Amino acid sequence: MEDFSAIDTFLETFTRYIDSGFGLIEGDIASLASILIVIDVTLAALFWAWGEQEDVLRSLVRKTLHVGAFAFILGQFQPLSEIVFASFAELGLKASDAPFGPADLFRPGLVAAEGVTAARPIFDHISLVAPGFVEVFANLPEVILLFASGLIVIAAFFVLSLQLFILIIEFKLTTLVGFVLIPFAFWKQTTFLAERVLAQVMASGVKVLVVAVIIGIGSGLFGELRTALSADDITIEQALSVVLGALVLAGLALFCPRLATGILSGAPQLSAGSAVRVVRNVSAASAAVGAGAMIGAQGAARMGRAAPGALAD
Predict the structure, then answer these.
(1) How far apart are CA 158 and CA 116, in angstroms?
(2) What is the pTM of this model?
(3) What is the rounded distance in angstroms from the CA atom of residue 256 to the CA atom of residue 254?
(4) Taking burial as the number of CB atoms within 10 A of a residue's CB, which of 54, 250, 270, 312 is the most buried?
(5) Element at 180 (helix H, strand E)
(6) Contacts 24+ apart (CB under 8 A), 83-88
(7) 6-33 pLDDT tens trace
């Protein structure tokens, strides 16, 4: 497994600073919650005093339960959100029968390293087919296709790793912002702010579940491909099949937030157009890689033709 711990270090740094923000603003949030509770209870008491037919005791019990429930959520918001996050991740890994646990899922560096490991047999085969400069030109079309295939596989896993990194940071920021907005649930007129935050936390949990399923399935799939592939006899068709699998994972990773949104809203968000956009972007990158390789090969060929003349002079 290659060492890609740098992105894990970035993630740990971001999460540490975000988690420390809960303690830094806890006093301000408590003051805001107290003010909103006083406003809500005062207004409710005035309406109870003016009402003639209203059951004050029932209204008091309902108000107490409402304030108490949101007070509990506010006091335990960070651990509760972490439970939601870990639960969705564990469900996704269990559904995909992943060979690793949630602790490894939250390490994007492992996902990036998986891409390098998946592409290594392709690059090893290139070194066997073209060990020297002459062999590179003798097998130039095959070398270019295999090299581009290896780069695409690595890029696809890097996209998946980046998507996982962004998803974790998004959830952390959502919980921090939610911690600020939850006190607004104590006053009826601003309850909608807290409701949106709770909905966003659940939406982030669904995104985690979707990504966990994608990574779990991809890990098992490419584990089987690594076992089946051998650097000694890799064909272009086998390399392209690995590329296709990597593109599928990259496409799902790019559009999984929309997929999670569609699950919550009840509307489909993925289509053939999504796949076309993924292939178009990767094709542009592959064309750039191929063009660069061809330019380098042409330059080397010109130097080779000019060398005899220079020696003769």
Answers:
(1) 9
(2) 0.75
(3) 6
(4) 250
(5) helix 140-181
(6) 84/201, 84/202, 84/205, 85/171, 85/204, 85/205, 85/208, 87/205, 88/205, 88/206, 88/208, 88/209, 88/212
(7) 888 888 898 899 889 888 898 899 898 8
Spatial separation of the C-alpha atoms in residues 145 and 151, rounded to whole Å: 10
> Could you tell me the two tokens for 276?
């076309």
Nearest to 160 by CA among 241, 246, 283: 246
Q: Where are the domains of the chain?
A: 5-305
Q: Does 302 have pLDDT greater than 80?
A: no
Structure tokens at 150: 């290896």
> How far, in Å, are 21, 151, 171, 183, 267 from residue 177 at the CA level?
10, 38, 10, 11, 27
Long-range Cβ contacts of 130-139 (<8 Å, 24+ apart): 133/300, 136/297, 137/297, 137/300, 137/301
How far apart (Å, rounded) are the C-alpha atoms in residues 18 and 85?
Answer: 15
40-59 residue pLDDT tens: 888 888 877 776 656 777 77
User: Of residues 307 and 157, which shows the higher confidence score?
Assistant: 157
